[in-house]
Amino acid sequence: MTRPDRAPRLVVAAFLLSALGAAGFAASYVLGLGNAALGGCLGGSFAFLALGLARWSSLIDAGEPDYVEERAVGPTPQGQYDAFRRALTEQPVPRSRVLWGALGTAVAAIGGATILPLRSLMPAMGTDPDDVLEHTPWRAGTRLVTEEGEPIRPDDLAMGGTVTAFPEGLDPREHVDTTTMLVRVPPNDLRLPAGRADWVVDGVVAYSKLCTHAGCPVGLYTDTSHQLMCPCHHSVFDVTDGARPIEGPAPHPLPQLPLDTDASGYLVARGDFSGPVGPGWGNH
Amino acid sequence: MTERPHSSSLRPRLLAAAAVLLAAAVLALTAAHGSGAGSAVPRAASGDPSPSSGRQVFLRDCAWCHGTNGTGTHDGPSLTDVGAEAADFYLSTGRMPLDSPDQDVRSGPPAYDDATISALVAYVGSLGNGPGVPALASGDAVAGRKLFLENCAACHSASGTGTIVSGGQPAPELWHTAKRQVAEAVRVGPGPMPPFSDKQLDQKQVDDIVAYVHQLGSPQDRGGAGLDQYGPIIEGLVALFVLLPCLVVIIRLLGRRAPERSEQEER
Amino acid sequence: MVSLLPRPRPMRKLDERLGFASTGRSVLAKVFPDHWTFMMGEIALYSFLFLVVSGIYLALFFEPSSAMVIYHGHYRPMEGQAVSAAYASTVHLSWDVRGGLLVRQAHHWAAHLFIASIVVHLCRIFLTGSFRRPRELNWTIGITMLILGIFNAYAGYSLPDDLLSGTGLRIFNAIALSIPVVGSWLAFLVFDGEFPGQEIIQRLYLLHVLLVPAILAVLISAHLAILIRQKHTHFPGPGRRNSNVVGSRVWPGYALRSLSLLAAVFAAVLLAGGLLQINPVWAWGDNDPATITAPSVADWYILWIEGALRLFPPVEFHVFGFLVPNQFWCGVVLPLLIFGGLYLWPWLDRRWTGDRETHHLTGSPRESPLRVALASATLVFLAVLLVAGSEELIVQWTGWTVAAIRDVLRVLVFVLPLGAGLLGWWLAESLRRSDLDHTLELGGKDLRAGLRRRAKGRA
C-alpha cells in the first residue's frame, strides 16, 4: 500500500463543509433560529462527515487486496477440554446430594422470599383485583356531573347531543371506571332490553364510555344512525339498542347506567352499571 | 419556523382544499365584478339580501324538498325553526343545495354568492323562531383548548386534522373552516355531528373553542413539515418508506457488492 | 516546540503500562467479510448509540410524574393550565428549551430506525441461513434485542402522557387483563391498581432509561463478542471456504467505512428531526382518560397488533368458568406465536432440513424455498395487519366504509400471505433450478421448471 502524497481534495472539502455545518448549528443555536435550522445544519454536518469518510475509505479500498484469515474457532482439543472439566468438578468436599440439595434449597428460598416484596407494587393487602374490577363507585342517588363538576339536567342536552359524565365528588382522572357517556335520542327510537324502560329520562341514556374490547373511550357519536364508535379498533355500538355491538371486535354491549332525576331535576344514577365496565378479563 | 407552508403535507385533500378556496375566490370575484358596474358599494349591490328576494331563490332551489313554506316534505326536513344559523352554515359551506334528495351532504364550494346566501338566510330565519347567525366575540384559546379536547377531539382529532366516524362518514378537517362556520356547527350539529345546546356550551365557551380551532394547523407545526398532524400512521410510513430506504441505499453505496463480481473486477 | 501532529510517544507510554500493542495489532488486522447487507446490523448499532446520547439529554429535562403542575411557556394555548408534570415537561422541552425539540424528534426518528433496521437485519440473517450452527445463540440474542427494542420504544412513546399515549397504555392494560388466571393481578401489579393508577409513568421511565437500555447494552456486547469470536459468515466465492474469512481489514478501510455509516445514521435522524415533525404531543393534548383523539393508533412496530385487534371477530368464551377475552388472542397469543417461532427457528429449521453442519458460508435465499416462503408470508401478513391499523387513512382516501375495508382485510389477511408464500417458494425453486443470478432474469421455461420440480417433490 502506497501512501498518496496529496490529501484527496473531495475528502478535505467534505470535512471542511462538515465543520461549516457544525458552525452553522452553533450559530443557529446562539441566534435562536428554529428547529429546521438546527437540524439542517447539524444533520448536514454529519452528512458531509459521512461523505468525506466514505470517499476516504473508498480511496484506501481501491489499493487494498482481499485479506484472508483462517477461522480459529471450533471445539477445544479433547485433552484440554477434559482438563477443564476436571478443574471444574474436583472438589475438596465429597460429592454429596445432601450438600448440593441444601445449597439449592438456600438459594431457592432466598430467591422466593425476595420476590415477595414485589407485592408492594400493588394496592394494599386485602384488595382483590377481581372485586375492584367488578364494581364502580356509582351508587343509587349519585348525581351525574360533567368533567367541570356541573350537575346535568336532561334538557341540558340537545336532541342528539352527548356529554361525558362522572359521579359527583369523585376525581374523574382517578376513577376512570365511572366514565359515562350520556346520549339524548328520541325516546320512540329506543329499543332497550327488557327491564330497562325506566333507566332512561327524557330520551337521555347512559352507557359506560369504556369499550368492552380494549377499554378505549367510545367517544365518536354519529347522530344520524345513533351509533357510538371506538377510534382504537373501530367497534360500533347501537345506542338505541342497549349499546349492542354491531361492528368490529367488541364482544358485548356497553354496560348501561340506570338513570333517574332527583328533586331538583338533576340526573342521578339508580345504581351501578348493568355489568362490569371495560375490557373482559379471566375471572369475570 | 412555525410558519411552515402546507405544501409539504401528504394528503391530496389539501389540494382539494386549495381548489375549493380558488373556486370560492373566482366565484366571489366574478360575482363582485359582474354586478359592481357603476356602483360604489359592489358587495351590497350584488343582490338584494332581503327575505323577499331570498324567498324567490328558495322557491326556485330549495322548495323541492323543504316545501314552499319551508315546512318540509318527505324528501327534506322542515326549516321553520332551524333559524338563520343553520341556513348560513349549510349554504356557506356548500352543503346545500343538493341536486337530488338522496345525495350525500358534503361540504364544498358554496353555490351562491354572499348576497344571495344572505337573502336565503334572512328568509329561512324569518320562517320561525330559530337562532340567528351567531355574533362572534373574541374567545380565549386556552379555555378553548380544554373544551375542544373534551368535546370535539374524539371525531375531529385533537389536532383538528379530521377523521372518520361510524359508517365511514368523515368528520372534516377544521384547519380552513371559517370561524363563523365552526361556531354554527357546534349548535347545528350538521349531519352525523351531535349538536351542543347553549346549556352545555354557553356562547362564551363556543367563542373559546372557535379561538382554539382558529390556530390549529400550521401554527402547531413547530417541528418541521407537519405530516398533516395525522399521527403515527403517517410517521410510520415516513420511517419505513423514506428513512429506512435512505439508509439502505447508503449501505449499498458504502459496502461492497456480491463477491463474485468484486472477484471478477480484481482479475 | 509543541506539535499538533500525533506522536507515537503517548501511545508508547500507555503501552508500557498496559501492553496492548500485540492485541491491538491483531484487532487492526481483523478481517471483515465485506458485503453491504452486513451493515444493516450496524445501522441498528449506531441508532442505539444515538438513542443513548440523545436520551441522556432528554432525561435532563423530562419529569416522570403524573402529579399536576401549571404550565407556563411559549405554547400559548396551554398557558396557565394544570397538566401532568410528564406532559408539561415534554411540551416545555419542545417549545421552551432551545434545541430540545430537535433532540426529541431525532430521538423518536432514531427509535423508528433502530427497530426497522433490526427487522431488515433479521430478514437478511433468516433468508441467508446465517442463524444455523454455530450461530443459534447469537440469533436468540438478536430476537431478544428486537423484543426489548420494541418494548422500550413503546415505553418511550407512553412517557409524555399525551392523549395518544394514554390511550396506548389503556390498551396495554386491557391486554394484560386478558391473560388467563393471573391477568387481573398482573395488570394491578404493573399499574398499581385499577387503570390508570398513579405510578405507571415512573415505572415505565425507570424501565425506559435504565433497565432496558442496560440489558440492551449487555446484549449488544454479547452479540458483538460472539460475532468477533465466531467471525462473520461470508458469501461463497472463489477462495472462500467454510474455514476462512475473506474481506477487508478493520484498519483503516473498514473502520473508516463504518464511521462513515455512523455519521450517515446521525445525519439521517438529525435531518429528519429538523425537517419532519414527529409526535407533536402539544397538538394531541394532555392525557385525560375520559377523552380520546382519533386516529388513535400506535407506532408501526406495535401497530400490527392493533391491526390484528381490529380484524379479529367479536368472540369470547368461557373455559372452566374463566373468560377468555377477545383481546387475548391478538394481544398475547399472536406476539407469542411470532416471537416464539423466531426463537425456535434455528431448531425448527434443523428438524426440517436435517442439517446439523457448521456453516460459515452464507446460503443464498434460493437454497431454501421454505425460508423464502415463510419470510414472504410473514412479512405480507404483518403488512396486511399494518394496513388494518391504518384503516382510517384508507377510508379518507377511498371513501369506502370501515366495515367494507374490514371485511376485505379479513379475507386478505389469509389469502395474501398464502399467495406470497407460494409465490416466494415458486420463485426460489425456479431460481435454484435455473442457476440464474437474478429473479428478473427468470423466463417462462425456468418458471415452469420450478413448478414441475415442486409437483414431483410432492408426489
UniProtKB/TrEMBL annotation, chain A:
InterPro entries assigned to the protein according to its UniProt record, in alphabetical order: Rieske_2Fe-2S, Rieske_2Fe-2S_sf, Rieske_Fe-S_prot, Rieske_Fe-S_prot_C
Cofactor(s) essential for the protein: [2Fe-2S] cluster
Sequence intervals crossing the membrane: 36-54, 98-118
The UniProt record lists the keyword Iron: yes
Gene3D superfamilies in UniProt: Rieske [2Fe-2S] iron-sulphur domain
Keyword Transmembrane helix: yes
Keywords: 2Fe-2S, Disulfide bond, Iron, Iron-sulfur, Membrane, Metal-binding, Transmembrane, Transmembrane helix
Rieske domain boundaries: 202-268
Function per UniProt: Iron-sulfur subunit of the cytochrome bc1 complex, an essential component of the respiratory electron transport chain required for ATP synthesis. The bc1 complex catalyzes the oxidation of menaquinol and the reduction of cytochrome c in the respiratory chain. The bc1 complex operates through a Q-cycle mechanism that couples electron transfer to generation of the proton gradient that drives ATP synthesis.
Protein name (database record): Cytochrome bc1 complex Rieske iron-sulfur subunit
Species: Nocardioides eburneus
UniProtKB/TrEMBL annotation, chain B:
Sorted UniProt keywords: Heme, Iron, Membrane, Metal-binding, Signal, Transmembrane, Transmembrane helix
Domain Cytochrome c: 49-128, 139-217
Pfam families assigned: Cytochrom_C (PF00034), Cytochrome_CBB3 (PF13442)
Transmembrane annotation, as ranges: 237-255
InterPro entries in UniProt: Cyt_c-like_dom, Cyt_c-like_dom_sf, Cytochrome_c_Oxidase_Subunit
Gene3D superfamilies in alphabetical order: Cytochrome c-like domain
N-terminal signal peptide: 1-31
Cross-referenced PANTHER family: CBB3-TYPE CYTOCHROME C OXIDASE SUBUNIT FIXP (PTHR33751), CYTOCHROME BC1 COMPLEX CYTOCHROME C SUBUNIT (PTHR33751:SF13)
Stated name of the protein: C-type cytochrome
Organism of derivation: Nocardioides eburneus
Automatic annotation (TrEMBL), chain C:
SUPFAM superfamilies reported for this sequence: Transmembrane di-heme cytochromes (SSF81342)
Enzyme class, UniProt record, top EC level: translocase
InterPro entries per UniProt: Cyt_b/b6_N, Cytb/b6-like_sf, Di-haem_cyt_TM
Pfam families: Cytochrom_B_N_2
Assigned EC number: 7.1.1.8
Known cofactor(s): heme
Catalytic activity annotation: a quinol + 2 Fe(III)-[cytochrome c](out) = a quinone + 2 Fe(II)-[cytochrome c](out) + 2 H(+)(out)
Residue ranges of domain Cytochrome b/b6 N-terminal region profile in the record: 10-236
Transmembrane segments: 43-62, 109-127, 139-159, 171-191, 203-228, 259-278, 326-348, 369-388, 408-428
Protein name in the entry: Cytochrome bc1 complex cytochrome b subunit
Keywords: Membrane, Transmembrane, Transmembrane helix
